[in-house]
């Protein structure tokens, strides 16, 4: 007798897949020219420029392919990290604010990056499903700014908290003033660049047969 295993649309993996698929249906928008919108949600940022270590990402995203986000993230309402989300709270531009923060970080790194080379997909999502969507997207794509090069999404730690090491992202893409106050890392930009090239070379980027595996 065959196993009885009916499809459950409310399975955790299927719910996450529905968020990821909805995000990837969005048309990429220039990160520097986002309109005004309300709500929280998930997003994927794509790179199309000429920074040499990222050339494989550029090639994967040209000609409308958009195969390889460089970073995936989320924006949740205030209090969301502590379980304090209030469904009656009036929507605010949490997602827009987070993307604007990322755009400012990129502009600060003008010696290596150009804001005009960045595009994003974003999706306003009901609060409870945001972490599911983000986790699945990161698991599926392993974006390099989520894995090998940490620190892109970091905030200024504030006065008296600069004893930590400078994020690897800021070593490779210097320019954020607060990061310059942190302790220097042992790695150099050249070392990290070499790691980036090795990382991307060992992970060929191609269009998958199925973006997300669903539970049955």
Describe this protein's structure:
- Helix content is 32%, strand content 10%.
- The chain has 216 residues and is of the alpha+beta class.
- It has a domain at 12-147: GIY-YIG endonuclease, CATH 3.40.1440.
- It has a 4-stranded antiparallel beta sheet with strand order 1-4-2-3.
Short description, anyone?
The protein has helices at residues 12-24, 55-61, 94-108, 130-141, 168-172, 177-180, 189-201, and strands at residues 29-30, 41-47, 71-75, 118-124.
CATH domain topology of the domain at 12-147:
GIY-YIG endonuclease
Distance between the ends: 17 Å
At CATH level 2, the architecture of the domain at 12-147 is 3-Layer(aba) Sandwich
Task: List low-confidence stretches.
Answer: 81-85
Please trace the helix and strand order, writing H or E for each element. HEEHEHEHHHH
Identify the strand order in the major beta sheet: 1-4-2-3
Q: Give me the secondary-structure category.
A: alpha+beta
- Supply the CATH superfamily name of the domain at 12-147: GIY-YIG endonuclease
Largest beta sheet, briefly?
4 strands, antiparallel
Q: Which CATH class of the domain at 12-147 is shown? A: Alpha Beta
Strand-residue proportion: 5-15%
Q: What is the share of helical residues?
A: 25-40%
Shape: globular
Mean pLDDT: 87
Number of strands: 4
Summed up, the helix count is: 7
Radius of gyration: 19 Å
């Amino acid at each position: 007798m065959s196993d009885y295993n009916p499809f459950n649309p409310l399975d955790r993996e299927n719910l996450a897949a529905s968020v990821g698929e909805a995000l990837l249906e969005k048309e990429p928008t220039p990160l520097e020219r986002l309109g005004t919108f309300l709500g929280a949600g998930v997003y994927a940022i794509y790179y199309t420029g000429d920074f040499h270590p990222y050339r494989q990402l550029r090639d994967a995203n040209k000609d409308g392919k958009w195969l390889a986000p460089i970073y995936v993230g989320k924006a949740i309402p205030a209090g969301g990290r502590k379980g304090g989300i209030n469904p009656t709270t009036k929507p605010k531009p949490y997602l827009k604010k987070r993307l604007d923060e990322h755009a400012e970080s990129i502009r600060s790194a003008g010696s290596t990056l150009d804001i005009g080379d960045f595009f994003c997909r974003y999706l306003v999502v009901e609060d409870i499903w945001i972490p599911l969507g983000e986790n699945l997207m990161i698991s599926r794509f392993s974006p390099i700014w989520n894995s090998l090069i940490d620190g892109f999404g970091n905030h200024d730690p504030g006065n008296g908290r600069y004893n930590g090491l400078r994020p690897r992202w800021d070593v490779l893409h210097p320019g954020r003033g607060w990061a310059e106050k942190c302790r220097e890392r042992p790695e150099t930009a050249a070392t990290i660049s070499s790691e980036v090239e090795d990382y991307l070379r060992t992970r060929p980027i191609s269009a998958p047969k199925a973006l997300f595996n669903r539970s049955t």
